Amino acid sequence: MIKSPKELQDVADESKIKVKKYLCKFVNAKYKFEFADVYYKNNREYETIRLYFADAYKTPYLKIIISYLDISVMLCSNDGNYGLYDIFRGGPINNPPIDKIKLDQMYKPQYLPAIMHFCQLDNIKQFCDYLKHTYNFLYLTTYIPSLTKAYTFLLSNNKNKIFPKDIAKLIVHKLLFFLPQKIEK
Predict the structure, then answer these.
(1) What is the mean pLDDT of residues 116-129?
(2) 37-42 vs 80-86, strand pairing mode
């Protein structure tokens, strides 16, 4: 079936939204942060990561912006911008303005570990590398389109109505996790 450019653009926009959703899930699962949205932009001139603690399209907002090429990290909100790390100023800001950040109208105590995480160069580089790797994995591979097929395969086997014993046992344990488990010796 031949698609119009508008239909192709709609499919591309939908896939970008799915990538952002899964990227946010991956980041939150690995780092145990509570980001509502993750934005990653990479081109020849700059590389930017924006991490939103609340919905990106609502105000007030609280977000962390990482500029990877010049390695600077800022916490931005309606109340002001706070520098957390700047390589041109000698690295971490000696006294990140935590007292001012805590007075911000969007601040919540559970955000503090994430904010403090981005005050150290090793953490910033490790996070950026993980995010780039995960973004490329989600965007350049068939992981997301194949996910529904994988779920369908696990839930139904129409050919011979049986699963291999190991897969059946795994599925039963995953689905019936609430039953007491027998310890095998």
Answers:
(1) 85
(2) unpaired
Shared domain for 104 and 21, answered yes or no, is yes
Length of the chain: 185
Q: What is the total count of domains within the chain?
A: 2
What residues contact residue 95 under an 8 Å CB cut-off, 6+ apart? none
> Are 91 and 66 part of one and the same domain?
yes
Q: Grade residue 159 by pLDDT with cuts at 50, 70 and 90.
A: low
CA distances from 50 to 29, 56, 75, 106 (A): 17, 9, 10, 16
**pLDDT given for residue 40 in this prediction:** 84
Query: What average pLDDT does the structure give for the chain?
Result: 75
Q: What are phi and psi of 128, to 5 degrees?
A: -65, -40
Closest CA to 14 of 22, 136, 133, 63: 22
Query: With the CA atoms of 171, 175, 178 and 183 taken in that order, what torsion angle do they form, in degrees rounded to the nearest 10?
Result: 0
* Angstrom distances, CA of residue 72 to CA of 20, 41, 53, 83, 157: 22, 15, 19, 8, 51
Tokens of 156: 């139904």
